[in-house]
């Protein structure tokens, strides 16, 4: 195992030590590494096993997968907790901005929209097509007349989760 490094949870190492009491640590680690490599290769026959040796092997494979998931959970626990805290802070900041900042921005945008419409009407009264001067304004692009203050935080969180699930890479 020269140049290789393996991290094993203490609970799993104690289990291995109990199962193989006469084996030294290095030999036990090397054998665990070899078996893990063998188990990491998916079986060539995807059919369900029916004979006892194949069932035993399937059980061992499932046990190995469980150990890997437990390892990922234990080693990632702090990262998962940190991500949950960041998500909660982000959600609360988003709600705060919607309550405190967004209404003022919407009001200002409504005033600007009304001003642009008045200027376009003045141009049209003079016989000038406002669309010929620049790109036309899509008035429906930003919903300025919706009031976000009555929004439901649980519904917003669920909508955000749906968005993140769509954006998540992988299967």
Notable characteristics:
171 residues; mainly alpha; 5 helices; elongated
- The helix-strand sequence is HHHHH
β-sheet strand percentage? under 5%
Q: Give the helix tally.
A: 5
The general outline is: elongated
Mean of all residue-level pLDDT scores: 79
Instruction: Give the radius of gyration.
Output: 31 Å
Contiguous uncertain segments of 5+ residues: none
Largest sheet: none
Helical percentage: 55-70%
Structural commentary:
There is one protein chain. With 171 residues, the protein is mainly alpha-helical. Helix content is 67%, strand content 0%. It has helices spanning 10-19, 25-40, 52-100, 102-125, 153-167. The longest helix is centred in the middle third of the chain and has 49 residues, at 52-100. The chain is elongated, with a radius of gyration of 31 Å. The mean pLDDT is 79.
Short description:
The chain has 171 residues and is mostly helical. The chain contains five helices and no strands.
């Amino acid at each position: 195992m020269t140049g290789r490094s393996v991290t094993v949870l203490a609970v799993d190492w104690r289990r291995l030590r109990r199962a193989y009491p006469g084996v030294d640590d290095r030999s036990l680690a090397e054998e665990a590494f070899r078996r893990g490599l063998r188990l990491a290769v998916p079986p060539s026959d995807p059919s369900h096993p029916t004979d006892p040796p194949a069932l035993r092997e399937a059980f061992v494979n499932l046990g190995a997968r469980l150990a890997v998931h437990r390892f990922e959970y234990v080693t990632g626990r702090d990262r998962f907790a940190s991500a949950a805290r960041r998500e909660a802070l982000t959600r609360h900041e988003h709600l705060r901005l919607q309550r405190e900042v967004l209404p003022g921005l919407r009001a200002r945008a409504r005033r600007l929209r009304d001003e642009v419409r008045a200027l376009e009407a003045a141009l049209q009264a003079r016989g000038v097509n406002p669309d010929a001067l620049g790109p036309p304004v899509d008035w429906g692009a930003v919903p300025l007349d919706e009031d976000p203050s009555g929004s439901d935080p649980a519904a917003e969180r669920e909508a955000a989760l749906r968005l993140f699930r769509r954006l998540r890479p992988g299967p």
